[in-house]
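Hi everyone,

Forwarding the result from last night's run.
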Amino acid sequence: MSRFRIFKSIVAIAGVALCLAAAPACAADSAAAKAKSSPQENPAFKKFIDEGGRMEFLGNSYGVDGWLLIQKDDKISTIYVTPEGGLIRGGLFDPAGLPVTAQQITAYKARMNGSQGAVPGAEKGGASKAETVYAQVEKSNWVRVGSKDAPYMYVFMNVGCDHCQDFWKKLQPSVKAGSLQLRLVPFGREDINRDGGAALLSADKPGDAWQQFIDGKLEALAKDKIKGDALERIDANTKLVRTAEIPGPLPFSIYRKLTDGTVTAIVGEPDNIMVVQADLMKNE
């Protein structure tokens, strides 16, 4: 991809410094000012895409949605969308004058090269549904099972769900081998799922506690194992399932592919677990 450029002409807008560039981009007009930030709904964005351009969401900072505009000749520019739909071409700086756009582009390039982190600020909206949910999940209450350095996937589960337990058994060899990390997101209203999930969030070694529970040692995730605010955190996860419209049946898995940086979601147990493992395989 072409070398990224940061533009230097600075103008103060809404308490942050924004630089305006003359590089080709979508200009703001009265119609665009009323449009939403979605590329499908914003007339200026739609024109750009129809002409062969491509757009990548950079994140939301200081109340504006950032987009990377890639023309069909690979020239790039950045544009920011205000909550009212106004368009501002150029780079975004924070109140101290540090380049937010540069940080956003660095994060974007990292995602394209294997980083699995969420788009900064995507949980606030503006991104695709998948990116928005992924960012919300990243900020949810989860426990890590497996190597912290391994590629990861988030798995929404009920501790009393047979399919969730079967899914764990299929992935366990990869987790033990250090090639996969699971980030379990327990939730549920029934006592076994709410109390058991809270106990899982409280466990010093959640992977061991989960395995013991599956092996029939139900006391491993008993109510007396709950610590601190774990019940409140379980309830927050349950609320997220509702507000983000996480579909069933369980387990529900979501991850960012290492191959191309896209977010992928799987409802229920996947038909071919090897496809999932290939998506999360590091390219050495």
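Residues 111 and 261 are 5 Å apart (CA to CA).

Cheers,
N.
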